[in-house]
Design goal:
This protein has helices spanning 2-24, 34-67, 86-106, 111-122, 137-143, 150-169, 177-191, 228-237, 242-261, 264-270, 292-301, 329-333, 345-349, 363-368, 374-385, 387-401, 411-417, and strands at residues 76-78, 406-408. The protein is mainly alpha-helical. It has a two-stranded parallel sheet. It has 17 helices and two strands.
């Protein structure tokens, strides 16, 4: 901008010098009348003064523009039809979810980190400036971080999982890193037995050379190192209500509590030990050919006769499977990482009993139970006593979070959804 201003001033100065020279070269000696000569000189002086004032005014204007750039107006565009063919879209989404579950089975402690990353990416949105939003900038912020603490390393490991999954998907289809971040957060919740959180697809990624938004929250926002005022202001500046904040922080606390209370062996027992690319099956050499004697021996172990119609599993079947788009989530992405019926609201019900030994997010307890946040406290009590209500609100809150600042584009979706206000959880709706 400085070079542009200098060049503009130089051009205008040259122009002024040329015009002035033209005026000064005009013949005045041919004018016989002294009064006419004086009048002509006066007019020339007036014109030169006018041009000089114009140059100064224009120069001042250029300087003002250079020193006061236009405010950022970054947007996250959503095109639901971006992936085209529905079968390819479903296959890409399932493959990404499988990659997340594989990472969780290998390292369960990453479960809440995937959700953290999705929340940080979305909370970069600033409702006043319309800057930031869920455009995948969190990946750039995480991978460029120089911090060496364990939390940052965990974030970088999660980011690496998503980058590798995106790289592998390029061979068949494609998925934006912004969508991958949002989907991974939802999959982390579902993997521990939580509900399937709706996630709109079609986010555009930030430009490769675009800077990290100035509104990006600190990466340690949820570690307890930031003050509660910073946490509250981050949610508020993004345009979220206290009710939505309570639902999301409660979820973060809940899935970490569930992960820490699950015996380590259960993760491996529930997970299928070998993963294959969608559509690929194992080689025949990987399997032992069964003889009639093998089958009879297995039936005898189970106390079964040949006439029984019950199904059985032969010893040595170690869970080979094909990642496909049919069947339940467990059939497609691998079994859940926990056993039994899980209710996320349990952690909110027992929020006052939360300690640093049960979860790394124990600070959430004192934050949501603070007398300074009476609305949040009321919703904690409501969610703790009504599990179905909590899951319903969590779905709405996560969907709203991952679409902050987004603008729909592309054909019918743009005409139907552009400028349409998002569905929010109103803080005042306390009676049902």
């Amino acid at each position: 901008m400085t070079s542009f201003r200098t060049a503009a001033i130089a051009i205008l100065a040259t122009y002024l010098a040329t015009v002035t020279h033209g005026f000064s070269s005009c013949s005045i000696t041919s004018v016989t009348s002294s009064s006419s000569s004086a009048l002509s000189m006066k007019n020339n002086n007036d014109r030169r003064a006018f041009l000089a004032e114009s140059v100064l005014a224009l120069t001042a204007g250029i300087a003002t523009i250079a020193s006061n750039p236009a405010p950022a107006s970054a947007k996250v565009f959503l095109d639901p039809a971006m992936y085209g063919d529905q079968e390819l879209r479903v296959s890409a989404v399932d493959s990404l979810r499988e990659s997340v579950r594989r990472a969780l089975l290998q390292k369960p402690k990453l479960t809440p980190i995937f959700l953290e990353m999705a929340m940080l990416d979305s909370l970069s949105y600033d409702a006043e400036t319309n800057e930031g939003g869920p455009d995948g900038s969190i990946i750039k912020a995480v991978m460029s971080s120089k911090d060496t603490d364990e939390h940052t390393k965990n974030l970088q490991e999660c980011a690496g999982v998503l980058l590798e999954a995106k790289k592998n998907l390029k061979r068949m289809s494609s998925i934006t890193i912004a969508d991958a971040v949002a989907l991974a957060g939802a999959e982390a919740v579902n993997a521990v037995g939580g509900p399937v959180l709706p996630t709109q697809l079609g986010r555009t990624d930030t430009a490769p050379k675009a800077p990290i938004p100035s509104s990006m929250p600190p990466l340690n926002l949820f570690t307890g190192d930031c003050t509660t005022e910073v946490v509250y202001d981050t949610f508020k500046s993004a345009g979220l209500t206290e009710r939505e904040m309570t639902a999301l922080l409660g979820c973060l606390l809940s899935i970490d509590t569930i992960e820490k209370s699950t015996p380590e062996g259960d993760w491996k027992q529930n997970g299928k030990p070998k993963f294959r690319e969608a559509g690929k099956i194992g080689r025949m050499s990987d399997f032992k050919k069964l003889t009639d004697e093998d089958i009879e021996a297995e039936l005898a172990k189970d106390g079964m006769d040949d006439d029984d119609d019950e199904s059985y599993t032969v010893s040595g079947d170690d869970g080979w499977y094909i990642a496909d788009t049919f069947g339940t989530a467990e059939d497609k992405m691998g079994k859940r990482v926990t056993k039994g019926k899980i209710e996320l609201s349990t952690a909110l019900k027992n929020l006052s009993q939360t300690t640093s030994e049960t979860t790394q997010y124990s600070w959430v307890s004192s934050f949501l139970l603070s007398k300074e946040l009476p609305t949040a406290l009321q919703w904690v009590n409501k969610y703790g006593s009504k599990p179905l209500l909590y899951e319903k609100d969590l779905k709405v809150a996560y969907n709203a979070l991952t679409q902050l600042g987004a603008e729909y584009t592309g054909g019918k979706y743009e005409s139907l959804l552009k400028n349409k206000k998002r569905k929010t959880l109103n803080d005042d709706e306390l009676h049902f």
